[in-house]
Specification:
The protein has an eight-stranded mixed β-sheet with strand order 1-2-3-4-5-6-7-8, covered by helices on one side. It is globular, with a radius of gyration of 17 Å. It is α/β, with parallel strands linked by helices. It has one domain: TIM Barrel (Alpha-Beta Barrel). Helix 1 packs parallel to helix 2 and helix 6 packs parallel to helix 7. Helix content is 37%, strand content 19%.
Length: 244
């Protein structure tokens, strides 16, 4: 889904932007490249249209949180788009997604200064703490060393920004190839070192993708108890426009 939605329960705007195709674009479980912008002009115009909708919603409804997703890393968006979005982010809780290679002290510092949020929440798609699952099965290309680097970066950012920057790990579930024990281990480990976990239910969009499987009641109860959020991937934001 490209567009804007409002969650009245938590006074949150969710904006799905068009971005360039993810710089990695090899993860076996992801096909969000199908919603990527056709070109730079399409990307920028879509962002302007979405920004107008955000402003309209902010005039009509109370907004505490803004979540921006673009099918890849927020840092891949053009500077002009990020600068335009700063018109609505001042002193709001702002959530973005990023692959770890874009996360450095300098890049986060500059983004924070541009957006001027009350709190910046960076969601990182680790998906699993298990290196073999993460890289051989999911094809994330995120080494154990890179996971450790992000943990160290998180600690550094806490000191730099008085705790106003959070790092949240995504953990994937409901996919054939990752068992309950491994999922629980991932949640426990990321909770130890980061600011929380969002569990995301896998959706199979194409036959070539890994098989989608049911979720046991025991796993679901564990996730609800131990995660900041359990996203069952049932809302419109998970609907891909014109899948290939």
């Amino acid at each position: 889904m490209i567009g804007v939605t409002y969650d009245v329960r938590v006074k949150r705007i969710i904006a799905i932007l068009k971005g360039p195709v993810c710089s990695w674009n090899r993860c076996t479980f992801c096909c969000f490249y199908e919603e990527a912008a056709k070109d730079l002009g399409d990307l920028i115009q879509t962002a302007k249209d979405i920004l107008l909708k955000i402003k309209e919603l902010m005039r009509e409804k109370p907004v505490d949180r803004l979540s921006f997703f673009n099918g890849g890393s927020f840092f891949e968006l053009p500077f002009s788009v990020v600068s335009d979005l700063s018109q609505v982010t001042k002193q709001k809780s702002v959530e973005i997604e990023s692959r770890p290679e874009f996360l450095e002290l300098e890049s986060i510092y500059h983004l924070y200064k541009i957006l001027d949020p009350r709190r910046l929440v960076i969601r990182v798609g680790f998906e699993s703490i298990d290196d073999k699952i993460r890289n051989s099965f999911l094809m994330k290309r995120i080494s154990d060393g890179e996971v450790r680097r992000i943990v160290e970066l998180r600690d550094c950012m806490k000191n730099e920004f008085d705790g106003e920057v959070d790092f949240i790990a995504y953990v994937l579930f409901g996919i054939n190839g990752i068992d309950d024990k491994s999922i629980m281990a991932s949640v426990k480990e990321f909770n130890k070192h980061l600011d929380g976990v969002i569990a995301v239910k896998y959706r199979m969009y194409h036959e070539w993708m890994p098989e989608e499987i049911g979720v046991s009641q025991s796993l679901l109860e564990f996730l609800i108890e131990n995660c900041l959020d359990v996203d069952m991937a049932e809302s419109d934001i998970w609907r891909i426009s014109n899948p290939q």
